Amino acid sequence: MTSEAPEPNTPPTPRGDTTGPQSEGRTTAAGAEIGALIGAGFGLLFLIINSSQFSTVGRTLVIALGALAFAGIAVFAVRGLMRSRAAASARDRRGPPFGRAYWIIVLIEAVLLFAGARLLSGLGHPELGVAWVAVVVGTHFYALGWVFGLDRFHVLATIVTLCGIGGFIAFFAAAPAFIPVISGVISGFALLGFAMWALVPVDR
């Protein structure tokens, strides 16, 4: 009676091995952690700036929720960055997400934000600034979704852009008080929510 000899030089895969074939298909997209931090930072800033017209209790609640969400995102994003660096040689990455394309997007965004805000102020409608910011920030996430390989950012881009457009609609509907709520607070929570979603692993 004979038995088959084990294959030489084939060490067993330990349980819980995150680099084995069973787990290679699920991981965060390239740049997801940094992208989540960027989105969450914008979201918290939107809440802080645009909740000033709320009551003291309402503003405190909005900012507290935003701060808690940002803190949670920051913890998971930093942990994800540390894990990805430790396992960099075993992960299938598209390449560094912060290449020339990323910085071109950021430069265009900065120019549009500054020029648009100055133009609106010059026309006597500075209250439309937050709506313009939401449109620019929203559309720039379309490009970032491509750079980071994170298609779900396209959904975020659509929501925030629509919030910005909603602010312009509120202005033309003679309801300017709703501009910071629609374009600012709602956009802020959308950014925070999608920053959390960005950290969910995707199929590679």
UniProtKB/TrEMBL annotation:
Chain residue ranges for the region called Disordered? 1-26
Could you list this entry's UniProt keywords, alphabetically sorted. Membrane, Transmembrane, Transmembrane helix
This protein is called what? DUF308 domain-containing protein
This protein's species is Brevibacterium spongiae
Where does the chain cross the membrane?
30-49, 61-81, 101-123, 129-148, 155-175, 181-200
